[in-house]
Amino acid sequence: MSKLDNFKKFVSIHPEFVDYVKNNNTSWQSLFELYDMYGENSNIWNKYLKKEEFDIKGLLNTLKNINLDSLEENITSIQKAVSLVEELTKPEEKEEVTSKEEKIDKIYGE
Fold first, then answer.
1. From residue 3, how far is each of 13, 30, 31, 66, 84 by CA, in Å?
2. Of the candidates 42, 33, 27, the residue with the CA atom closest to the CA atom of residue 4
3. What are the φ/ψ torsions at residue 51 (nearest 5 degrees)?
4. Are 78 and 72 contacting, i.e. CB atoms less than 8 angstroms apart?
5. Would you state the pLDDT for residue 93?
6. CA–CA separation, 37 and 46 (whole Å)
7. Which residues contact 1 (CB under 8 A, 6 or more apart)?
């Protein structure tokens, strides 16, 4: 395999590079030059590769921006919708019993 093929394979494993190139933060040429000089296992890639880490500050900011009143209203609306669907989909046992009793009454004349 050529260095270019190895670089393409490396980039396909790390799609974060595409974002950097699309946002005009770097070019494919400069990334390839870094790859050619340092290889795959260099610390130079840490700048480009996103690491999934738990960010407590980000979580707290997200929670701070949630409108609790709106959230409660949405949950209530969802509960009402679920109740309506349950009512519409549950079998109508009461009416069946009544209609069977009416049929029996008609047959026996009561």
1. 15, 14, 12, 49, 62
2. 33
3. -110, 130
4. no
5. 57
6. 15
7. 9
- Half-sphere exposure (Cβ direction) of 105: Cα atoms closer than 13 Å: 7
What is the chain's pLDDT, residue by residue, as a tens digit (110 residues)? 788 899 989 888 888 888 888 888 889 999 999 999 998 888 888 888 766 566 677 778 788 888 888 889 999 999 999 998 888 888 765 555 566 677 777 776 65
Which ranges of 1-110 does DSSP label H, i.e. alpha helix?
3-13, 16-22, 28-38, 56-64, 68-89, 93-108
Tokens of 18: 């595409």
**Residues written for the chain:** 110
Q: Is 26 left (phi over 0), alpha (psi -120 to 50) or beta?
A: beta
Q: What is the pLDDT of residue 78?
A: 93
Residue 102 DSSP class: H
Measured distance CA(4)–CA(10) in Å, rounded: 10
- The structure's pTM equals 0.45
